Backbone:
């Protein structure tokens, strides 16, 4: 009787210690540099790898969309969206980028090799255009780099939540203002001020803050707590909309 109790007790202890050891095991560190490079490739792969700009419109670009053609139609974001949700996201309401194509959000968490196989398929026509390192970084981004932006940005109204603008001002003025100016209207070839970018396309802003800007020495914040990006976005929304 006694020995049975002792055995039950000690096996319970073993189970408890095993659980504690499992819970306190450090999370597997992922290569955030590779993830962010994948995010840059998702933005404009041919600029990142300095490949010639594709000339013809992508064969998977639907004929129903005549607003966009040529190289732009080869950017992952053009078919799958800055919010990664394709037709279910912001591009479902867009005139210029309405394609009806689904997002990549269904592949979040998927096996990297399975994603690479999709990128090399006949639909994508990319097999001879990138090397294995590029495919790997892109697939890593698809698997672990995309975030569910609908948690923070309302797809219909573009309103975003969860950020503290006062904290964001301090981050922005120390991390971003040296290149972008305190008003967020530099460098001079910036396509639009940050105030209007955040009102018009907050998904693009968020993607670029997390992953950087192709071919520029801009940092990527993806390895930091997401709260920092949300705070910066809240501050950017308060900046002037004129250039
Ligand atoms: C011209 C449009 C177009 C471009 C550009 C494009 N894709 Fe796709 N992608 C598609 C289509 C079409 C599908 C198939 C959707 C389906 O199965 O209905 C697809 C499917 C996918 C899927 C699988 C999604 C799923 O859940 O089944 C992934 C992942 C993906 N693409 C990633 C990318 C990446 C990364 C890039 C950039 C290198 C890219 N795509 C560029 C059109 C495009
Ligand atoms: C080392 C300089 C540098 C730093 C630091 C930097 N950026 Fe940039 N960023 C750039 C350049 C250059 C561009 C491309 C501008 C262009 O297209 O003319 C850019 C582009 C952007 C864009 C895309 C704008 C658009 O409409 O296409 C966003 C958003 C952005 N930066 C946000 C930030 C934020 C937020 C920070 C701070 C966390 C930051 N950047 C820090 C250099 C920098």
Residues:
């Amino acid at each position: 009787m006694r020995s049975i109790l002792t055995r039950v007790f000690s096996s319970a202890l073993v189970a408890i210690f095993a659980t504690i050891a499992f819970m306190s095991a450090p999370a597997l560190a992922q290569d955030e540099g590779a993830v962010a490079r994948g995010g840059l490739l998702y933005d404009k792969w041919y600029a990142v790898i300095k490949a010639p700009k594709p000339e013809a419109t992508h064969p998977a670009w639907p004929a129903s969309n005549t607003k966009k053609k040529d190289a732009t139609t080869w950017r992952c974001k053009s078919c799958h969206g800055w919010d990664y949700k394709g037709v279910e996201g912001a591009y479902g309401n867009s005139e210029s980028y309405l394609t009806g194509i689904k997002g990549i959000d269904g592949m979040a968490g998927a096996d990297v090799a399975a994603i690479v196989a999709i990128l090399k398929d006949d639909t994508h026509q990319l097999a001879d255009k990138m090397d294995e390192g590029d495919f790997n970084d892109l697939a890593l981004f698809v698997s672990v780099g995309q975030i569910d932006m609908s948690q923070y940005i309302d797809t219909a109204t573009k309103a975003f939540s969860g950020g503290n603008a006062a904290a964001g001002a301090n981050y922005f003025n120390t991390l971003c203002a040296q290149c972008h100016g305190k008003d967020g209207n530099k460098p001079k070839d910036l396509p639009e001020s940050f105030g209007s970018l955040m009102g018009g396309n907050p998904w693009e802003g968020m993607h670029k803050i997390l992953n950087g800007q192709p071919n520029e020495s801009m940092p990527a914040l993806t390895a930091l707590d997401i709260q920092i990006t949300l705070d910066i976005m809240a501050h950017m929304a308060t900046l002037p909309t004129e250039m």
The chain has two domains: 32-146, 165-236. The chain has a mean pLDDT of 92.
